[in-house]
Amino acid sequence: MVIWLVGMYASGKSTLAEEIKIIIEKKHDNVLVLNGGSIRKILGNDLSYSLEDRRRNADRVSRICHYLNEQGMIVICSMLSLFEETRQWNRDNIENYYEIYLDVSMRQLLTRDHKNLYRKALNENTNDVVGVDIEFIRPQNPDLILDNNKNRKSLSSMAQKVVNLIDV
User: Fold this and answer.
1) What DSSP string describes 119-131?
2) 57: which residues sit within 8 A by CB, 6+ positions away?
């Protein structure tokens, strides 16, 4: 099973992934959390944040999730996931694939921007930032859409909604 959490930087994907893992681990011990950044580090951080390299990283993550799923792992992947074709590849090739979209307003993202990534991009001090100079296109057919404009207390209930959907 692969649970693919999609959303912008600072939308809460990684935090939600950990919450989901805690719940699933009560019944299963074969749970792994991956994110796009960890894959970059594991594979040598050889990619930039250009659109082309983001696509390459997304393809790598998809294939790693596919492989781990075939080995019987439950993978929770938190990924910015820009590309509909990557998500479609996942649907076509990964058995028990679930796509969860975290919908968060730019206003809320700016309040969570601890690395000042958005602020730097908005002030034109950096580029290749999704949501500023790279368009983020919402997923077309997620299995679940979660409004994460609220506080951290709602993460537990969101995690439970995901677990209820996938029925593990």
Assistant:
1) HHHHTTS----BT
2) 36, 39, 40, 47
163 residue type, one letter = V
- Of the candidates 166, 160, 158, 119, the one whose C-alpha atom is nearest the C-alpha of residue 12 is 158
Quote the pTM value.
Answer: 0.92
Question: Shortest CA distance to 132 belongs to which of 144, 140, 124?
Answer: 124
CA separation, residue 125 to residues 109, 116, 140, 155 (Å): 18, 11, 31, 32
**pLDDT tens readout for residues 118-159:** 888 888 888 888 888 888 989 999 999 999 887 666 788 999
Give the alpha-carbon dihedral of 104, 107, 111, 112, to 10 degrees.
30
Give the 3-state secondary structure of residue 152: coil
What residues have CB less than 8 Å from 27, skipping those under 6 apart?
A: 168
- Cα radius of gyration rounded to whole Å, the chain: 15
Rounded to an integer, what distance in angstroms lies between the CA atom of residue 27 and that of residue 45? 34
C-alpha 135 chain-centroid distance: 16
CA proximity to 22, closest of 74, 72, 70 = 74
Token representation of residue 90 = 């996942």
